């Protein structure tokens, strides 16, 4: 449906546009070999065109790897977090939760739920990152260049929210299985065991019972994750990094990406935590409702496990952006620079300042 929108790439310089670099012109004082070297660095050969179907597909691959790998890596921490959320009296705190889980079920129990985590979050990451790029380009192209620049934060928020709606539909069944395995000892130990048992006992509807609360957790989380990252990255290159982005090596750019991801991750964890607690409770108790859970837990109860979630999600988000950007480098996918004010807007503002001074 965005075919007509993608025909025009947003002209303002930023994450919604391709980086277009022209090779330097040769002069008498510029050795030919230097010109060739400079040209190869300034105008890398990309594997696809920005805004093409292949570009969006490769962004989906980056998202699949970034979310699938990172969420699977922290399954032990996620297991303890979920158990702390659903039974805080028994597990008390993170360290005690680890000790008790190992004591009751052994070290191998800390890996419970790794399969639904890997599959579910890989699918979610593919839709999240891939569709974010689709919606971001689509929404920005509806606007003129100056409006797209001025309201770019709203473009990021709208694009990420739209993408997350579809990403959570893919995630929901696997999230339900994961929480059931992790928080109900004896129910099942593997995805192959839990899935048919849940279908037989409760029907396929049980996989989407937590979808609305999942949206409540993930949509605000993703909106902060993308919008905060984009704006933080922009500010880092403007105020913190001592040289322009185009003069930074790819390694230096990835470090900046990781740092911006850390900032976004902490904010994401705080915003989405209450809904995360509700989702864990819903998937544990098939008779519970959102209202009954909130009433039972109270305001303080829905914030249980926040410290663990900040550590987990903060690290996760930073690594996800690092992996996503790294995959784009490996696959030679276009990596446009942060947003810059359009030339037309710069000239207009300069003219207005000049008139005021006179």
TrEMBL record:
Q: Where are the transmembrane segments?
A: none
A GO cellular component entry from the record: mitochondrial inner membrane
Q: For bias kind Basic and acidic residues, which ranges apply?
A: 343-358
Q: Does the keyword Flavoprotein apply?
A: no
Q: Show the GO MF annotations.
A: phosphate transmembrane transporter activity
Pfam families assigned to the protein according to its UniProt record, in alphabetical order: Mito_carr
Q: Which UniProt keywords apply?
A: Membrane, Mitochondrion, Mitochondrion inner membrane, Repeat, Transit peptide, Transmembrane, Transmembrane helix, Transport
Phosphoprotein is among the record's keywords: no
Q: Where in the cell is it found?
A: Mitochondrion inner membrane
Annotated spans, Disordered:
335-358
Could you tell me the membrane topology recorded for this protein? Multi-pass membrane protein
Spans of the Solcar repeats are 54-138, 151-235, 252-330
Q: Which InterPro entries match?
A: MCP_dom_sf, MCP_transmembrane, SLC25A3/Pic2/Mir1-like
GO biological process terms, alphabetically, are:
mitochondrial phosphate ion transmembrane transport
The source's domain of life comes to Eukaryota
Stated role: Transport of phosphate groups from the cytosol to the mitochondrial matrix.
**Family recorded in the similarity comment:** Belongs to the mitochondrial carrier (TC 2.A.29) family.
Know the name of this protein?
Answer: Phosphate carrier protein, mitochondrial
Record the organism. Answer: Parnassius mnemosyne (clouded apollo)
Q: What lineage is this protein's organism placed in?
A: Eukaryota, Metazoa, Ecdysozoa, Arthropoda, Hexapoda
């Amino acid at each position: 449906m965005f075919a007509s929108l993608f025909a025009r790439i947003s002209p303002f310089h930023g994450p919604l546009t391709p980086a277009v670099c022209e090779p330097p012109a040769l002069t008498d004082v510029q050795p030919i070999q230097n010109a060739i070297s400079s040209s190869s660095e300034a105008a890398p050969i990309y594997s696809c065109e920005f805004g093409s179907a292949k570009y969006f597909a490769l962004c989906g691959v980056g998202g699949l790897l970034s979310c699938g790998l990172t969420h699977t890596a922290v399954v032990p921490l996620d297991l303890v977090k979920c158990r702390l959320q659903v039974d805080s009296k028994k597990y008390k705190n993170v360290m005690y939760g680890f000790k008790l889980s190992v004591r009751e079920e052994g070290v191998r129990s800390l890996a419970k739920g790794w399969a639904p985590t890997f599959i579910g979050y890989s699918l979610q990451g593919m839709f999240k990152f891939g569709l974010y790029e689709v919606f971001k380009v689509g929404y920005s192209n509806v606007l003129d260049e100056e409006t797209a620049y001025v309201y770019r934060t709203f473009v990021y928020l709208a694009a990420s929210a739209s993408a997350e709606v579809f990403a959570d539909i893919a995630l929901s069944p696997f999230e339900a299985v994961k929480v059931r395995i992790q928080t109900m000892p004896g129910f099942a130990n593997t995805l192959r065991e839990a899935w048919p048992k849940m279908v037989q006992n409760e029907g396929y509807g049980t996989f989407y019972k937590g979808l609305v609360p999942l949206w409540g957790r993930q949509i605000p989380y993703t909106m902060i994750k993308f919008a905060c990252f984009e704006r933080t990255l922009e500010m880092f290159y403007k105020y913190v990094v001592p040289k322009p982005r185009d003069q930074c090596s790819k390694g230096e750019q990835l470090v900046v990406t990781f740092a911006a991801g850390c900032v976004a991750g902490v904010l994401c964890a705080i915003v989405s935590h209450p809904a995360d607690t509700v989702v864990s409770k819903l998937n544990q108790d098939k008779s519970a409702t959102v209202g009954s859970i909130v009433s039972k837990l109270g305001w303080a109860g829905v914030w249980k496990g926040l410290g663990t979630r900040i550590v987990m999600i903060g690290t996760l988000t930073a690594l996800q952006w690092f992996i996503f950007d790294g995959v784009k480098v490996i696959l030679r996918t276009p990596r446009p620079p942060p947003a810059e004010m359009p030339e037309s807007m710069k000239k207009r503002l300069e003219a207005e300042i000049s008139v005021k001074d006179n």
